[in-house]
Structures are given as structure tokens and as C-alpha cells.
Amino acid sequence: MPQDKTAVVTGSTSGIGLAIARALAGAGANVVINGFGDKAEIEQIRSSMEAEHGVSVAYDGANMLKPQEIADMIRAAEERFGSVDILVNNAGIQHVSPVDEFPDDKWDEIIAINLSATFHATKAALPGMKRRGWGRIVNTASAHALVASPFKSAYVAAKHGIAGFTKSCALEVAQQKITVNAICPGYVWTPLVERQIPDTMKARGMTEDEVKRDVILAAQPTKEFVTPEQVAALAVFLCSDAAAQITGAMLSMDGGWTAA
Ligand code: NAD
């Protein structure tokens, strides 16, 4: 990866975002981590990343529900590090429920965090990338950006929206050495997946083992979970010069799910 770059990774106090932040720091980028969690744990994550990789790591607690906080986070990163060269739009939440019982507030939150926050952060980061003539935007989409599952209407709608946004944005900046791509993971074992098991058990009338076997891993021909580190390695590759001609792409990492 090119040196002296700064990355902002939304939703990086846990799961996939944390793995991406660690991998970017490992590749030599200064990193702004973001997300919720226990203050002491977040500070431990931040300082250990700095110590391990010899880069600067800052924490910004911007709430992805709030456009002004998102714009302020990008501004603060630019002020502190001089640039935001890499933006990873990763924060996301899930809610599992039939459409006719889907809580309105959950629909609004999922669209705001999983879709609109990507627009707000990208809008704030693009002017600096255009000025400097280099940028990488990596959106954590999902296999659910390409195919659907029942009871996840808001999530599937938001992730399909990310696919459209990624492609449109990539075309706009194609001649400015800025690439915009989406990674589409299948099931990755993170707290987000763990948390949806009880609701899926309820919605489908299944036991925990049945949900894991017949719902989750049923979708993945390899019968294995993707790891956060595998997703992170692809994100780092997308930030390299070798990936300069990959843009507007939806890159699947789903154990064969969407090949079926
Ligand atoms: P996770 O729950 O482990 O992490 C989510 C992160 O987002 C956390 O850091 C959390 O604090 C942060 N976050 C949540 N709401 C926020 C808000 N309002 N403002 C700021 N930060 C907020 O989940 P994960 O599985 O690592 O998911 C990360 C991304 O990957 C999501 O976009 C998710 O849709 C996507 N994804 C996950 C899977 C999977 O199987 N786990 C598969 C495909 C795509």
C-alpha cells in the first residue's frame, strides 16, 4: 500500500471493521477508528494498534445516525493527519423480523447507518481526495447486496442501495485516481451474526443449532464462516496501487453463496 496514507474506518470497534483497521495499520496507514463500546476497551484497542504497528491511531465516536457528526469526523481526521486518503464505510446493524411486523424505527436506523452514513462520509471525504488526486473508498456491503433472504428487508434494501451508490460514485470519480468498491461478504462470525440468532430462532421456529446449520451455513457452499481477517486482507488489497483499475466492483467473499 502507498505510504503516508490516513484511513477512516467506520464501525471499527468490533468485528470486520476492527480487523480492517488493524490490517490497514499493519500496512502502514494512520487510522481513525470509530464505533461504540466500552471506553477502556476502545482505548486499549487504539493504543495497542499504535504500539504494534508504529502508526498513529485516533478514536472518533461519531454516531453514524447523525450526518453532522459524520462530516465532523472526516474534518477532524483531515485536520489531525492532513488528509483522509482511505475511507472504509463499514458500520452496520441488523434487525430480523417479518415486513408486516418490522418496527418503523428499526427500518429508519438501518437505512441511516447501513446506507445513508456511507453517502454522508463519502460526500465529506471526496473533496480532499479529488484535490490530492488519490483516494480509496471501500464499502462493506454484503452478499445481501446481491441476493435477498426473508425477514431482513431493511438490511437487504440498504445493502442493495450500497451496490448502486458504489457503482454511481465510482463512475463519477473514475478519472481522478479514486476507486470506489464494495466487498460483499457472506456470513462472517462477528457479534452482528451472533446477535441475530435468537430473533431468527423466533422468526423461523428453530433451535440455535438449526439456525446455524440450516439458515446460516446452509447459504455457504463451503460450510465455513468467512473470517474478519480475510475481509480485511481484501480491503487492504483494494487500497493498493495494484488495485487501481478495480472500481465500481462488487467483490464477493461468500464461500460460494452467490454462485448458487
Ligand atoms: P459488529 O456488530 O461486530 O460491528 C459493527 C460496528 O459498527 C461496531 O463497531 C459498532 O460499534 C459500529 N456501529 C453500530 N452502530 C453505529 C453507529 N450508529 N455509529 C457508529 N458506529 C456504529 O458487526 P460486523 O459483523 O463486523 O459488521 C460490520 C459490517 O459488515 C456491517 O456493515 C455489516 O452489515 C457487514 N457485514 C457483516 C457480515 C457478517 O456476517 N458479520 C456479512 C456481510 C456484511
Question: Can you tell me the residue ranges where pLDDT is under 50 for at least 5 consecutive residues?
Answer: none
Per DSSP E runs of 2 or more residues, the count of β-strands stands at 7
CATH topology of the largest domain: Rossmann fold
Strand order of the largest sheet: 3-2-1-4-5-6-7
| Count of the domains | 2
User: What summary fits the major beta sheet?
Assistant: 7 strands, parallel
Q: Would you list the SSEs in sequence order as H and E?
A: EHEHEHEHEHEHHHE
Bound molecules: nicotinamide-adenine-dinucleotide
**Rg, Å, rounded:** 18 Å
Keywords: Oxidoreductase
Family: Belongs to the short-chain dehydrogenases/reductases (SDR) family.
EC number: 1.1.1.30
Pfam families: adh_short
Structure description:
Its EC number is 1.1.1.30. By secondary structure, the protein is of the alpha/beta class. It folds into 2 domains: 216 residues, NAD(P)-binding Rossmann-like Domain (Rossmann fold, 3-Layer(aba) Sandwich), CATH 3.40.50; 37 residues, no CATH class. It is built from 8 helices and 7 strands. The chain has a 7-stranded parallel β-sheet, with helices on both faces. Strand 5, helix 5 and strand 6 form a beta-alpha-beta unit. Helix 1 crosses helix 8. The structure holds nicotinamide-adenine-dinucleotide. Nicotinamide-adenine-dinucleotide binds next to helix 1, helix 4 and helix 6.
